[in-house]
Amino acid sequence: MSNRDRQELLIVTGMSGAGRSTVGNALEDLGWYVVDNLPPQMLRPLVELAQHAGNALPRIAAVVDVRGGKLFADVKDAVETMRANANVRVLFLEATDAVLVRRFEQVRRPHPLQDDGTLLDGITAERELMQDLRSSSDMIVDTSELNIHQLATNIQERFAEAEAPGAQVTILSFGFKYGLPADADLVADARFLPNPFWNPELRPHTGLDAEVSDYVLGQEGAREFIDGYAAALAPVLAGYQRENKRHATIAVGCTGGKHRSVAVAEELATLLRGLPGVAVSVKHRDLGRE
Predict the structure, then answer these.
(1) pLDDT digits (tens, 9 = 90+) for 56-112
(2) Ranges for the RapZ-like N-terminal domain (predicted)?
């Protein structure tokens, strides 16, 4: 049975307060059948029911989280078992401790694992419980810098074309001084190139401007790196398609995410758009942050 013929199941999980409800609503808007707070032991019966329903339930999303209590401990084993019988992917939502604390304080609700401790105690306990599931997830989305509308848009962009074959690739520029992107599958470092920041004429501009782009791409080693990296990514993205990994984030970083990483990301995207079965978008996480 091919991946395309098997029932498609998306498991939405992650940290409490990271946006599972928003994701569920966004998926419903895209036509997914969404089940919230499902015990892991019910995943197989859910898929079997959907298989009997045929085209009536082509895509199912199950929100699985620590609200299931002791039942949640079996989720990783349940997911691995399900992968042999259905097209199963796991979407993991996370955010920083500070953001999660702020969100819980805003709604004045305790963390489900808080018990008699603090909010941070509950978040720490949940991270430990989620560690194995996170490591085996197909997609990780860090919602720390996203409001509910931005998160919904992110999900729509990821899954609106879910019926289309191929890989949806996001080239993401960023600044190392602001931290690594938590959802990056691959990370490249453009800091080996001279920094336009130290050129007074280029400093006010960004990697989207021709002056900066020409400067960065004209440096020794720049073209060799970009061409070589694109060539190295070709078999990786082809492998992702064979393994039904439909979404990938390729991050390119420099110091501040304004000059080098932006120029390199744009040029890399241009080259990757020529690959078969690959749809490429570009995002600049830290552009305008300075």
Answers:
(1) 777 889 998 887 666 566 677 778 777 776 788 999 999 999 999 999 999 888 998
(2) 8-160
Residue 153 has pLDDT above 50, yes or no: yes
Task: Tell whether residue 82 is among the known ligand binding residues.
Answer: no
Residue type, 215: Y
pLDDT in tens, 177-204: 999 998 899 999 999 999 999 999 999 9
- Asked whether the whole model's pTM tops 0.70, one would answer no
The string over 27-40, giving b where at least 16 C-beta atoms fall within 10 Å of a residue's C-beta and e elsewhere, is beeeebbbbeebbb
109 is in an annotated binding site: no
Question: Is residue 257 marked as binding?
Answer: no
Q: What is the rounded CA–CA span in Å between residue 45 and residue 51?
A: 10
Q: State whether residue 246 is helix, strand or coil.
A: coil
- Residue 186's H or E segment, with its range, is strand 186-189
Q: What pLDDT sits at residue 244? A: 66
Annotated ligand binding at 31? The verdict is: no
**6-15 residue pLDDT tens:** 567 899 999 9
17 is in an annotated binding site: yes
Q: Is residue 21 part of an annotated ligand binding site? A: yes
Say whether 18 counts as a known binding-site residue.
yes
What is the side-by-side strand order in the sheet with 247-254?
Answer: 186-189, 247-254, 167-175, 278-284
**Annotated binding residue at 68?**
yes
